[in-house]
Design brief:
The chain is α+β, with helices and mostly antiparallel strands. The chain has two domains: about 55 residues, no CATH class; about 70 residues. Helices cover about 45% and strands about 25% of the residues. It is built from five helices and five strands. The strands form two sheets. The protein has a three-stranded antiparallel sheet. Helix 1 packs across helix 3.
Length: about 140
Amino acid sequence: MKPAAIIQEAAADGVILVRTSSGSLRATGEQAAVTRWLPVLRENKPGILAALEGAERDPPQRDPAIEARRQRVLAMLEARPGTRYAVLTDLDAAPGVVVLALAIRGRASCELHIPRDKYDGVLLLDLIEKYGVTVH
């Protein structure tokens, strides 16, 4: 199995692999899943470390549509200095899905993909207003 496939399959099993600052391999996640993956990780450690180092050096390119939505919500915040958050919905990004870009001032920005039949904009805004400044 190739290192990239190991990283991907381990992640699908809930095991996150990272290259530490000292150059070693760290596996985190549910202990039973980590234990299952340990033999494969030990056997392929040099290749996995090289793949992780390459991913750090050459991060994947951002999807232009995602970045465009992110820039739009950040611009909305900048244009309204007293606003705590900005939300942008894109109903045409994917079939059956509402793509929602969200930026919370001084905190973060993210993108949510919500099934169209589950989307409730009023409830979403209520939740953001209620929990948007809570630190978890």
